Amino acid sequence: MKQNDRIYIAGHRGMVGSAIVRVLEAKGYTNLVTRTHAELDLLDQAAVDDFFRTESIDVVFLAAARVGGIHANDTYRAEFIYQNLMIQCNVIHAAYKAGVNRLLFLGSSCIYPRNAPQPMKEEHLLSGCLEPTNEPYAIAKIAGIKLCESYNRQYGTDYRSVMPTNLYGPNDNFDLQNSHVLPALIRKFHLAKLAMKKDFDAINKDEAKFGHIPVEIRRAIKSSPPLVRLWGTGSARREFLHVDDMAAACHHVMDMDKASYQEVIRPVAPFNDTGIEKVSHLNIGYGEEVTIRRLAEIVQQVIGYENEVEWDTAMPDGMPCKLMDISRMTNAGWSRRIDLMTGILNAYRWYCRQ
Hints:
Largest sheet: 6 strands, parallel
Strand order of the largest sheet: 2-1-3-4-5-10
Radius of gyration: 20 Å
Number of helices: 13
Strand content: 5-15%
Shape: globular
Distance between the termini: 34 Å
Number of strands: 13
Structural class: alpha/beta
Helix content: 40-55%
Low-confidence stretches: 268-272
């Protein structure tokens, strides 16, 4: 990318988009283009077409998406598949029509089969059945990868895809009914800590800022002593990457010339007998996994909550394990910089400042 490129960051107010903006600004890119949802509804095809037709965009970071945790994915299945498909189709096609040659699509590690070998390689895509609880979202993200791949093959564009692992950090979603596991843990332990201090004014202010506290959670933290109740058995294993490391990886991928990027995604050999000879996306992850139970212990330590934790084993764990093979990215010269403990402390401090 050139310093004077006109760069559009779709989803700049979200966790990933805002981190990409921070990284680009820190690296001296000043010609950044952003639009709020009120200014540009990415579900509106005509509006998206008009935006690209008039704004002379050179580069796109497509970080806008409908996202959420297990509960949100399983409850709002229609919204997750429809909205994500529409955003992707509208932005990618409008960018192509407007002559945008370089675009980065951000997907998710949920694209891989539920029982994919660990760690999950890029070649494992479409090699088995998806995790049922987030299948609609995963299908939408797979479609985004294939959109980029197909436009590249048919039209010669340079549209790239990266698949991040579980992300966390500033501007995360802390809504207890729709968030991912790590921000939900941070908020639950924080609320329980406030309840220990009987600081109910602070709890009410937290609710006004970060969203409704469900009755069962409010009842648990107001018990004597306060209780943190968590989903599942805690045995599921996940990896977590700080969003600033993800944003740095996105810049790293987009700053490669086309030949270098093609070399990075080229596999050494076919994955299996299906005839797959190449991949068209890159995994971005932490490179290590942790059980959800251990993650809860780290969050509990960071926040300083010392009382009881109860696991609701009737609730789902989701996929048993998800670890990304990030060898292609590390071979390309990128590595994560923020360790898990430091990253969670950073995220909690941001949360408290809000």
